[in-house]
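Re: that chain you flagged

S.,

Sorry for the slow reply, it's been a week of failed gels. I finally had a moment to sit down with the sequence you sent. For the record, here it is as I used it:
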Amino acid sequence: MKDRPLSLHIPRGVIIEDYLKIARIDHWFKNLFMLFGVLFAYFHNPAGVGINRLPLILISVFATCLVASSNYVLNEIQDAEFDKIHPKKKFRPIPSDRVILSIAYFEWVLFGVIGSLLAATVNRPFFYTIIAFLIAGIIYNVKPFRAKDIPYLDVLSESINNPLRLLLGWFTFVPNQFPSVSLLISYWMIGAFFMAIKRFAEIRYLNDEQIAGSYRKSFNHYTETRLMASISIYISIFAFFLGIFVLKYHFELILSLPFIVGFIAIYLKIGYQENSAVQSPERLYEDKGFMVYAVACLLIFIVLLFTNIPAIYMLFNVQPPQISPLWTF
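Prediction finished late last night. Pasting the structure tokens below so you have them in one place:
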């Protein structure tokens, strides 16, 4: 795709809007997942997380958002030729030739550099995790790696952003210790579940093997049956490692299990809907019933995380856990 000169008759505001679109600022809400890291940091060390540290979390979140946008811009550039095949994505700014590629590449670098510089002001572990976030974006999108073209690795490499976001929230307040590996793996696997459901919905939406395979190479391998099999594996691993975390750190969280199972079942049901919203998670906000339930699940989880119920240990004959994070730097 060649650069084309700016046309004087095109309103400047429209051009700016196109460059903002490829940065997907409307996807910044996904970085709220790093707040789980903040939540567990507070659970581990309440004294280290206070209102006086609000500026720090704001810098951390903004740095994460900028780096996420850097990855989004790179994704838009690398996927442009494939997006032309997709019935909806072909209208994106780059496939529609409304963006100058040299400026888009500059935008990718600019967001990444500014986000990294901000990250360096937080602490070293946070900065290293931000760099890992950027590298993950390159591995996912750019040849010769381009993990998104490889079946199953596409899901796993994209969902690795979930535990990276958790680490970013954690390291903001606990830079000298590493959180539970069982928690990180379970967080990774629930992300893989979300991504596999998205792939499942995309295949059902395209409903054409030739178009699907041309749009995304991994779709030459995927079928609905294979994706469902992988989804069952991801959710099983998620449940296994979440169980380890609950047993070792705060057994009261076992009471959140019915609500988590309900959330997974509802999300899976949405994935089966025609032109499912899981293809574009920002559309999930339109489903008010789902959002109310999701928020309720989150609140129940938070309440249980900071609640002590001695009777539950007696019922299950479990000793109250007193385990610190695995490693100290």
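What I noticed first: The mean pLDDT is 89.

Talk soon,
D.
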